[in-house]
Structures are given as C-alpha cells and as structure tokens.
Predict the structure of Flavin reductase.
Amino acid sequence: MTTVDAHRFRAVMAAVCAPVTVVTTTAADGPRGATVSSFTSLSLDPPLVSVAFDRRSALLAEILAAGRFGVNLLGQGQDDLAVRFATRGADRFGGETAWFTDEGLPRLRDAAGWVACDLDRTVEAGDHLLLFGLVTALGRAELPPLVYAHRTFGTHSRYAERPRPRITDQIAACAR
C-alpha cells in the first residue's frame, strides 16, 4: 500500500472548490451547529445528501443522538457565519446569529439554501464518519453560494451572468 504525504494531500485538496455549510441539530439543552465543507447531494430517489465529520466532532455525537440534522447552505457574504461556526468556544447561536426553528431544527436566517434530514445511515471512512441524510424538507433563496477553495471564501464567478428563465416560464413550470 502506497502512503501519500498528509501535508501534500491537504495542499492538493485545498484547491478543490467546496460548498460552505453550517450543519445543525438540536440537543437537550439547545441548538448545536458547525461549519462543514464536505457536503454533497447523493441520490434523487430517495432524496439523500451526505456530510462528513471527524470522529472527534462534538456535533457528530449530537447528530447521532438526535437522529436528525439540518444543512444551511451559506450564501456570498456569509463568511462571518462560516468563521463563527468553525471557531471553538464561540457563541454560535447568540447575539449576531439570526436563526429560527424549522422542522424542529435550527435554521440560519438568510442562508442560500436549507435541507432538513433524518439520519439514514453512517459509513466509516478513515478518521471521519460519513452521514447519509434522507431529505425531509428543503428550501432555497436566489442568492449566490459561498464556496471555499485555496483557504479562502468566494462565490461562483459567473453566478450573476447565468441565464434566468422568464417569469412566464416559471409560472408555467409551477402549473405542471
């Protein structure tokens, strides 16, 4: 078995553009959450997503106990939330964090997207645990996404230039 230098592996993976999310759950004594960049859609039928957590994560233990979690997809300009939820000891749900309960889970106000999940299964993956979430509710706002690459926050560079359907196309799609 070939071993790869961990520092080199981390440096190469830093170039991979990743969505920035805050994963949340509810514990007996209140809301919990942490910044997570290892989020992806997994299946359409049934609707599944995946998130990965270091096995030592306190939030992981809370999610396993609750059996549910929410994924807040952050939007451009929400770097402060990403940093707050990544900082140990920070008052994540206090003062400056606007949030509310949705589907029994903490949801961040003004996030670009929201996915509520029941924990479907877990898969051991090295020093992490991969969680599969069965999507039970979701929503999205028309906001550019916050992404992370090369150890910095940004957004999709051509988001504002993308073609948008005319309002009549949107109304017709809703009528189907």
Summary: The chain has one domain: 6-175. The domain at 6-175 is CATH 2.30.110.10 (Pnp Oxidase; Chain A). DSSP finds four helices and twelve strands in the chain. The mean pLDDT is 89.
